[in-house]
Amino acid sequence: MSRPIERPPSESKEGVRVTVRCPECDASLPFESAEAPGAIRCGKCGRGIPLKVSAALQADTAVDVCPVCDGPDFYVRRDFDPRMGLAFVVTGALVSGVFYFFNLDLIAYSVLAAAVLIDLVIYTRLKDITVCYRCHAEFRGSYPRAAGAFDLHTADVLEPEWQRRIGRR
Ligand SMILES: [Zn+2]
Ligand SMILES: [Zn+2]
Predict the structure, then answer these.
(1) Ligand 2 centroid from CA 132, angstroms
(2) For residue 106, how far is its CA from the centre of ligand 2 (angstroms)?
(3) CA 5 to ligand 2 center in whole angstroms
(4) Full-model pTM
(5) How remote is the CA of residue 167 from the centroid of ligand 1, in Å?
(6) In this structure, which ligand is nearest to the CA of 40?
(7) For the chain, where are the E strands, in sequence order?
(8) Is 65 helix (H, G, I), strand (E, B) or coil?
(9) In contact, 118 and 95? CB cutoff 8 Å
(10) What burial class does residue 116 get, using C-beta atoms within 10 Å of its C-beta: 0-12 exposed, 13-18 middle, 19+ buried?
(11) Which of 35, 63, 115, 166 is deepest in the core (most CB within 10 A)?
(12) How far is the CA of 67 from the centre of ligand 2 (A)?
């Protein structure tokens, strides 16, 4: 029973939030898949990027084909900015260092432990996003995550393919 789920347009107003990477200047360009724009223009460098938003992507039922590069290859990762997590732990370590300096070891360790714990909690509560292997477009929505985890070998094959297509190599 694999009949595609059809939803009336009124229910799928949200769509998938897609973040496209500009091929020219790497700027992050967001758009809503429900609006299915035929193209977007980079606000930074002015480059026009043609888009082909699939019906499934528009309805937030699946990420099947990338609207930017036409590629069907994706991986799933946590929607997490590693720099943010690191900044949090570093701040925790600094605060803890101050307490340590004043011989308040127990408080120092508690602060550090709390920072690490909060970091973990933030990490586990994050949602998964789908990312395109070729052009690094990101897809945030309520569609089921069907892609696998990041595979370095696949990326090594597919990334250069896209880079050649946009004339970066
Ligand atoms: Zn640009
Ligand atoms: Zn792509």
Answers:
(1) 5
(2) 50
(3) 24
(4) 0.73
(5) 14
(6) 1
(7) 17-21, 28-32, 39-41, 48-50, 74-78, 128-132, 138-140
(8) coil
(9) no
(10) middle
(11) 63
(12) 7
User: What are the structure tokens assigned to 72, written together?
Assistant: 């069907």
Tokens of 132: 């395109």
Question: 28-32 and 17-21 as β-strands: parallel, antiparallel, unpaired?
Answer: antiparallel
* CA distances to 28, 67, 96, 106 from 103, in Å: 46, 57, 11, 9
- CA 140 – ligand 2 centroid, Å: 14
Instruction: Determine the Cα–Cα distance for residues 163 and 49; give it in Å rounded to an integer.
Output: 15
Successive 10-residue mean pLDDT values, the chain, 169 residues: 52 78 94 94 95 96 96 92 74 84 85 84 83 96 94 96 87
> Measured in angstroms, how far is the CA atom of residue 46 from the centroid of ligand 2?
19
Distance CA 5, CA 159 (A): 32
Cα–Cα distance measured from residue 75 to residue 24, given in angstroms and rounded to the nearest whole number: 23
